[in-house]
Every structure is written in structure tokens, then in C-alpha cells.
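OP here, attaching both records as promised.
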Amino acid sequence: MMGGTSAPGWMTRGTLPGSMMGSSTDMGQVMGKLFANAPGPRVSASDAVNLGNRVPAGATIDRAANRIAFSTTRVSFAVLAGPAGGPDETFRVGGLVNPTIDVPVGAEVSVQLIDADPDTAHGLVVTTSGGASFPMPMMSAAPAFSGAAVWFLGDPTSVGMHTAPLSFTASTAGAYTYLCPVPGHAQKDMSGTFMVSS
């Protein structure tokens, strides 16, 4: 069953079934609750804020252009997904909201994704497609590079905020999109440009 007039209501923006899912129609909220206690590394809220505001080593920040440019081929930075104190459904890198990130071709990229949203799952994928305009980018936004995706992380708990690494080689020059693959989030502008420059 894939949809259409015979699809159950929860598939077409109705209430999701089951007591574990509550009455939410937001898949990010449902996924966040379901996976809040999933195993994996965590960071404290204060560490997350520091990481999201830290200027990455080897990077130049242009606040006016909302751009972070790396001059080294060893690139490492943290991405806060859905952080407090900023626009909802956004990423924060180096203190900027949804910045353009520019790396040299061949760069070895290490990203620490942190879900800082208190009640919604978020992920991160670097993709070649225009997946930001689709309601379900996980169906259309394949990673541009091997290792360039974390599909989603659950809600923070008293133990801390979920974090996961992405590691990939930016092997081909071009303009890419980074986005949150959770349904509806990229459509709400939870995306940015990832440039690989030769």
C-alpha cells in the first residue's frame, strides 16, 4: 500500500496510529520520541552550544555572506540540528545558520552531527539532488559521497543530546546540498549549500 485514496489517514497527514506515537502528525516528533533512548554517544547541552558556535580549525568565516570556507584538506566541524535560540528547523555551524560550506576538492571531511532539538528527530545528508523541495527527501536525496549521511537522531534526554559522525571524501568538485532528511524539514529551509571547489 503506497498511498492514494485507499491509504490510511496516517499516511496522508492524519494522526499516526498507536499509543507510542501519541497524536502527533509530525514524523520528526514521532521519530524523536521513539528513538530518544537509542544507544550511542551523547553530548551535554553546554558542550553542544560550544561546538555549534566554534569556528572550525582551518576555516574562514564570512558572516555577511553566511559562508564558511576551508583552506585545508582535513576538514572537521560540528553541526547543531534544531538548536535553541535560533530559527526552528535549521542547522548551526560556526555560529551561522544554514551557512554555505566550502571545502577543497579531495578534502577528508569529518562532521559531528548533534540533535539539539528538544522534541524532534533530525539528520544530515550531503546530496547532489534537489531533495530540499521534496517532503520526503530520504526517498530522493541519496548521499553525494559514501559516508555523507546520518538519516536521523532521536530526542535529547537527561543523559544528553544524541550525536553521530559523518566522514567522507569530497572527491568531486561541484555544488551540493546538505539537508535534514526527516520528512518536511528540508521544505522548511533546513538545508544549505555544500561547495567542493577545485
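Record two, same layout:
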Amino acid sequence: MNRRNFRVIHLSVSTAIVLGTMLPQLPTVAQVPDLGEANKQFPTTGDTRFTYLLGPGDEIRLNVFDHEEFNGSKVILPDGTIELPLVGSVRAADRTIPQLINNLETLLDPWIKRRPIVTISLTKTRALLVNVAGEVQRPGPVQLSSETLFGNNFNEDNFTVRAPTVNGAIVAAGGVTKNADIRQVVLKRYSPTGNAPVVTINLWESLSSGNAPRDLLLQDGDSIFVPALAAGDNLNRRLLTRSSLAPTTVRVRVVGEVKKPGELEVPPHSSLSSAVAIAGGPTDKAKLEEVFFVRLHEDGTIEEELVDLSNMTDTFQIEEGDVILVPKSDTYNVLDLATDVANPLNFIVNFLRLFTN
């Protein structure tokens, strides 16, 4: 640390003690890449078609023409089956609705004189469980709800499922980290046969251009992986943090001469002055001309800088784990020293604290 920064730290014994005790607790964060945009192109590849597979918890409405005894709502049981009169247990899980219709017509054919005509509507969909891994804030399984609209009869034209999407799953996992390469998001589709197709999606196009790929619908059991940026690669951080893929808040610490010091959550695109304002704003004793800003990187290096916030404006962008120290003005440091001299006990206590730190 240079001599100028030492001077700022010693402006106030109490604030120096606070900063000294808090710095070891900072979570490590990755080094900030330069703002800019990589010129590499990563087109969306793979089969992007969506085929809804039925599963336990889905509710369907079954209709067999001219045979009301088979009609009604059916909930697919935990073992993946539905129950029908005469036919008994029928496997429904891991089948599309057209596949289930064909199977039911075959099973009902011996019991019905005329060729059975079966129609099925999906009236309620189950919650989907997908796995989100890689550069997201909370990697792991994510449960997502879905909503279905349907016509009177099922066919490929009038069936619309409002299932969760890739973007929605990433948001549910807390949003992407600052190291995320959203140009190469990998979606591994669920397949009952185990031969899972893979789709690579360039979500950056939806932020940076008008050639955005459509937001792909998810199937229960899908997996999403958000890779990390390669060394030396970078994306426009400001654009990313203002997007819907970013986390809603990041945690920072604002200490010293603010009205509500401590750890707080701020929007990821906040500036230093915004974080100070969210911490209640500066006190009357604050020296905003020399605010001390600290950032700890993953490689163990510490970035530190003096910032003039006298106008409560700046161009910095806050990140997870940042620390902002608002020192006391020189006038109030002199008054504090006078108080310590007048009260020998306070002076001894503060001197011992400084010595032990």
C-alpha cells in the first residue's frame, strides 16, 4: 500500500480498526476484465425443437368419442401410469401426447366395436426440475413452475405450453457471474433413452444485437451449463450487469462515516456513490474527497484506490465483496483527539486497539 493510502487509513482510529477487521472476511472475486466485446462468433447449434414429454404430476383430460366411461381428468401417478376402465394401468410418462393417443387407441380397440377415437388435452403441467451448473450464483438443481394453454383437442397446431425457459432457469439460479461466457451456454436435453442431444446457445446475441435466438423451452430433467470466459477474453460488463441474466443484487461493505454502516445488497450496476447512498448517505463528519475503495481479487492481489465522491458521482461499477471506507474529515479527527486527551481512559483504549491491529 502506498503512503497516500496509509494517510487515509489513519484519518480515524475507529474506522481503521473497522476496516482492518473486515478485510480478511472479504469473499474472493475474479479479476475485472476490461470493458469491451469479443469479436468471436458462436452461433446457436443443435436441435432447438421442443417436444414435451409427459411425467408424474401432469394432469390430462381424456376423451374417447362416444364412450363416456373412459372420459375425464387423469393425473399421471408417481410410477408414471394412468388407470383406465377395462384396460387397467397404462404407461404415460416419457411419452408425448400423440404417442399416448396412439397407444390408447391400440389398447382400446379390442373393447370398442368401432375404431376408437381418442383426444387428450394437457390441462396442468408438473413442476420441472432442471440442473444449472457453471458460472451462476447458485449452481445446482432448480425447480421451475410451468403454465399450459390448450385447445379442445390436441394437435401440434393448437397446443401451447408455457414451460420454463433457459433464461428463466439461469435467473432462478441467481443469475450469471461476472466470469460467465453466455455466448456458449450448453443445454443438454433429457432423453428417456439416455441419448441426450446437446444444444449450444449464444445468449449474448439477445443483449448485443437484433439477431437474438429464441429462448428455448425446457423439459423436465434438462441440464444447463454456463462456461467461464477464456483467459484474456471479455464481454461488455456494463451491458451484462444491466441485463435480466445478471443477479438482482451483490453484497458489499460500506464502513466509516455513513449513517448505516455494514454489509448491504446493491444492484450489480451500482456505482460507489450509489452504494454510499444505499448505506444511508454520508454523515456530517464524512470526508468524501478521499473515500477509500478496496477490492480483493481471486489471485490474492488487492486493488485499492482513493476516490473523490464530494459530488456523490463516479463511474466505478461495484462488484461482489467490495469494501468502501468513508473517512472522517480532518476537523473531526482533531476534535476526536482532543476528546481522547481530555479523557485519558478513551485515549489508552484507542491506543491499545491501534497497537494490537
